[in-house]
Each structure stands twice: as structure tokens, then as C-alpha cells.
Amino acid sequence: MSPPEGPAGRVGVDVGGTFTDLVHLAGDLLTVAKVPSTPTDQAHGIGDALTRAEVAVDALARFVHGTTVATNTVLERDGARTVLVTTAGFGDLLAIARQDRPHLYRLDARRPTPLVPREQVVEVAERVDADGTVHLPLTDGEVARVAAAVAALEPEAVAISLLFGFLDGAHEARLAEALEPLGVPVTSASRLLPVLREGERTSTVVLNAYLSPRMHRYLGSLSDRLADEGLPVPVEVMRSGGGTATAAVAAREPVRAVLSGPAAGAWGAAALGTACGEPALIAFDVGGTSTDVTLVAEGRPRTTADGAIGGLPFAVTSTDIHTIGAGGGSLAWRDDGGALRVGPRSAGAEPGPACYGAGGTEATVTDANVVLGRLDPDVRLGGSLPLRADLAEAAVAALATELGLSVRDSATGIVAVTDAAMAQALRVVSVERGHDPRDFALLPFGGAGPLHQAALAAELGCRRVLVPPNPGVLSALGLLAAPVTVDRARAHLGDLAETTSASLEADWEELEADARRAVTDQGMEVAAVYAGADLRYRGQAFELEVTGTPDPAALAERFHAAHRERYGYDQPDASVEVIALRVRAEGPAPVLPLPPLTGGGDVAAARLGTREVVAADGEVVRAELIDRAALGVGARLRGPAVVIGLDATVWIAPWQVGEVDPHGVLVLEEAR
Fold first, then answer.
1. Which secondary structure element, helix H or strand E, spans residue 222, and what is its range?
2. What does the alpha-carbon distance between residue 346 and residue 388 come to, in Å, rounded to a whole number?
3. Are residues 178 and 89 in the same domain?
């Protein structure tokens, strides 16, 4: 079936560290809600958002969720008691990993503690060789011994990752079958991730097992709760690599959702850029606790199979997102050398910035923006949360005393330090990967992104800035634009020059058939299939993914071009190796919900007055206050101006001009 559209209604809910954002689309009517997140029970915050938006759950045709449950479970280390089953002699694999150093010059740098301690690792007497032949068979007696040893450890989840099990998964399958009577989730590498690199593969499988019970409980509880309220369709969950899966599938493969929320924003930004005729974007999402940055080329965010969370690697497909600990709730502080620092500690959702009036006393980036006049204290965030300018000033004043600065200079410094950290993050995904930021439009979103767009556009030289009509909830909008998606990968090792088209086609066809079944099993038709291959030069340690083609010569040319783009050079005479083949199958992609904007281009009706605002250079300017909801198509603005919306505020610098396009996007450029 195709994804339901029309007046029945669709809901996207994105749970962030500070706010839970909801978008409800029924026909052309778009309703937005933003409520404080409830970290102890995310479902409670979702219920608050549904109530605020007055959503009739029993009338919905789609419910899509971006969750931080998997992310928080890893970062807070409160997942399941997991047992790892691995080949004899490799019990220390998680601790040894790749023997690289987290920081090259820091002697005190420490690796993250493995999720599975050594005493919860069970070794198996078996061995598959590097060519896929069985060197040491797995006996029935060994299977029984391993099952008993695992049971004695009283696991809540089990991960199975055998050496070269990706070439022959029979041993892993026998062990998984023997462990089924334990009644706990069992994840085997040969089913989840049959690819090269035992370290990354094993870490991924352990992460999946570690997360399974928590995600199963959470998604099961949420699905049951919504079903009791009459939800007629299954809950869908955003995946790290883009696209969605049903809650049942997501609970089985939670490692694919560790970047659920950020991925929704990245793919929503890509869909918005395409709608505006801007397929090349640098998108950045500034939330309460972090900033997530991604590069969009040809209308799609970059993806990677080289991800990490909390220092723990995972190798499933994920959106290529660079994250830093700088957001609206990031705390400003004075270090031992007397310098002003911002983040990575955050005020979070509870108590939040001082200006929220919920008990916070330390200065945050949000408090600094209030002091500078860029956030209007008379406006309620999300329509309900009032801002206390007096509390913001008191918090910044306390830090100013420590720094020996004025309150205004301290607030200016907090924002400048934050802007510098964000600019560096934008360079990581652009300049450091061979892309000139001047060739890309900038797309700020999140509750605080539009407040920082001017400084970042000036620093990177981005030609245009696209501010979405509802920037604070673009991630929730992105959820509604995401199709059901399935990713499959398989090792395919060999020299590309010696690889035949027939062998490539055969493996891709098998992967495609599996991916297609997984999509249709979730009640969707397959609308698109993408094939890819991981390639490298002989002797390299890591590879690049390129678009698949069964012609080995053409595949090599694509790899040379990708290598030139990424690293600035290629080696056309060098041997190219195939490492893995990949397939992505997608259901029909819904259109990004951008209801047509009404109203004319007269700005006069949107003016709310003026206010003094401190610009980037410290100069105090008189800025117009503009009600974004009253802006129609063609409305032209000139900075300095503060454009106030329900979910986000836009600071337009004195050197910028803007115009509202037919989608409601505020397009900003340098004044001529």
C-alpha cells in the first residue's frame, strides 16, 4: 500500500533533549506543538504534545516518531545486561578494538569502557577461516556448553559475533537457536551486519543487544498506549540512515535508530532544499543541548557506515552527521585560565536556562540571546513557556563578575564562542571533506538555529540562507517526509579487476530481494532501490561507498572520482578492492508537508514594534520586531530585524535582506 495522505491526518513527533516537537498535518492545515521533554518517560511528553495540538489519535493515517531512547540508553549506560558470545581467543576484542588512540597527543586519553565486561564474554571453540571454509567445526557438545555458560550469567540480552561469521553464518545460527529458550533478545552478526571488520561488527551487534530490551519496552508501551486511544496504524520510527521502520522492526534493530532525531532533521532539510530548488545545502540543527550538522548534495544527505556514539563504533548505515555540545541550553563558564567557555554541559530540559524560570541559575546561550535582545522576553516559547529577562540577566551577570566583564560583553562573548564552535562544525562537513561552503546554501533549524545563521553565513561565505517556515520543528516535519526504508549489506571481498559483472549482479539481486521483502512485510510497496559498493585502494585501511553498477570498470571510475572529491587525489593505476555491497529499498516517499502560504507581501501588518538589539560587533542597533505568522508570500525584510515565530526566532543581521517564498521559507541574502 502507499503511505496514507489527505485529511485523515499525519503526525510527526521528535523528542529532543529539551523540547518535544509535534507536527500534525490534516489536508492543508498544519498544527505545531512544542512542549518540554520528559526525560524520565518520553511517552508522557508525547502525550502532552498530542493534547496541546488537540490531535484526535483515532483519526490519524500515520504516526512517525523520532526518539532519543536508544541514544540516551548508550550515553547513560543503563541498557541491558548483555552477554557476548565470540570465537575462542577473541574474548578481549571489545577492549582491544583497533589499538588506536582516541587522542594522538593526550597521554591521559582513555577508551570508553566496553558495554560488555570481560566476565560476561563466553568464548566458543569454533573457527571459520578468512576464505569462508570451516577450520574447526562447532560440535553439539560445544553448543550445549556455551548455552549453559550463557544461561549461568543470567543475561537480559545476548550478542553473537564469531570470527569470519559473515562469510559463513551457520555456526552463529546454531548458537542463536540454542539460546532461544532463554527468552531474551539474541542478536547475531551474520544476520544484522555480515560485513568485514570484527571490531566494528562486534561493537554494532553488542550495541543492538544492549538496546533491545529497553527499546522493546518503550516502543511496545507507546504503541499500546496509542492503540488504546484508537490509533489505526502502526507507529513508525525514524532510522539513523534516513527512512522509517515500524515500531516492531525498530525494536528488533534498535542500533539503526541511535541517531533517529538528528536523521529526521537532516532528511527534512534535504526535502525542503529540493522544494526550494537548492539541492546543495549545509544544514545545522541547534537544539537545547547540541548542534547537529550535515551536508546535503544532490538533494540527499551523505550517509556513512562508520558511525560512533559515546565513543563506541557502529557500522550500520547512518546519516553522516557531525555533532558538537553547543546548543541553546549549553552552560557558559570560566575555565582555570580565566577564559570564557561554552558547553558541553547543558541545562537540559530540567531545569533549563535561567530565563525559563524553572530553577536554573547558570548562564546559557539562550540567556545570552535574551540579554542581547535577540530573543523577545514577551514571547512564550512554543506558545506556553514564558521567558524571564530578569533571571537571564542575573545569570549572565554572575558569570560577568567572574570574568571581569560587563553583562553585555559577557553575553556577546557567550554567543561569539558558540558561533565559533558551530562554524568549526560546519567546516568539518564541508571544507575538511573537499567542499567549498560558498557553493552551498545554509539551512538553519531547531529552536536556536535561526538565531545564529547570520554569523555562520558570514564566516563561511554561504551565498543564501533558507529559514524554514517552522524551523523549530523541522525534524518533526522531516519525519512525515520519510519513507519506510530497509538497508542491507554483505561482504564481497576481492580485487575489482578480477570481479565479474555476474558476481556483482548476483549479490546485489539477493540483497535487493531481501530488502524488498522487508519493506513489503511492513505493509508498503517498494518505490525505489539504491545499490552501492564499498571500495578502497589495495593497502588502504578504510573504504568509500560509491553508487553501484555491475560494470567493474565503471565502478572503478566512480571510486576514483569519489576519492578525488574526498581526499584531493586519486590513483587510477592502483588496484581497487571491493569490500562490501549495499542495497537500500524505500517505500513511496510522502511529500514534505509545506501547505501553501497565503497572504500578500505587505510587511506593515506584521510589524510589532522595535527594540534595541546588540549586533555581532557589539553595536547597539534598533531592530524591527516582526510577527512571522503574519508574513505573506513576497514579503521583503531588511535587517536588523527580529522575526518572531511560535517555535523559533530569526535574527536578521543589519547586512542581510530577506524575502518569503511561496513555501513560506524566509530566503536571506547579503544586501546589495
1. helix 198-228
2. 19
3. yes
The DSSP secondary structure of 415-444, one letter per residue, reads HHHHHHHHHHHHHHHTGGGT--GGGSEEEE
Q: Which three cell numbers stand for residue 427?
A: 567546516
Kindly state whether residues 163 and 226 are assigned to the same domain.
no
- The pTM assigned to this predicted structure is 0.85
Alpha-carbon span 321 to 591, nearest angstrom:
23
pLDDT of 541 higher than 80: yes
Task: Quote the distance between the C-alpha of residue 412 and its chain's center.
Answer: 29
| Domain C-terminal end among 204, 228, 257 | 257
Angle at 385 between CA 331 and CA 409, to 5 degrees: 35
> Domain range spanning residue 613?
604-670
538 assigned to some structural domain: yes
Q: For CA atoms 496, 502, 508, 510, give the dihedral sign.
A: negative
Please compute the mean of the pLDDT values over residues 170-196 and round it to a whole number: 97
Query: Which residues, including other chains, have CB under 8 Å from residue 177's CB and lie 6 or more apart?
Result: none
Q: How many domains does the chain fold into?
A: 6
Q: Which residue has the higher pLDDT, 557 or 629?
A: 557
Higher per-residue pLDDT: 72 or 138 = 138
Residues 222 and 132 in one domain: no
**Are 426 and 319 found together in one domain?**
yes
- Nearest Cα to 19, choosing from 355, 382, 330? 382
Q: Do 478 and 537 contact (CB within 8 A), yes or no?
A: no
Amino acid at 230: G
Residue 222 in grid coordinates: 507507546
318 falls within a domain = yes
Q: Are residues 90 and 179 in the same domain?
A: yes
Please check whether residue 203 lies inside any domain of the structure: no
Cell digits of residue 342: 561554552
Q: What is the mean pLDDT of residues 253-269?
A: 92
**3 located within any domain:** no
Task: For residues 548 and 380, give the distance between their C-alpha atoms in angstroms, rounded to a whole number.
Answer: 50
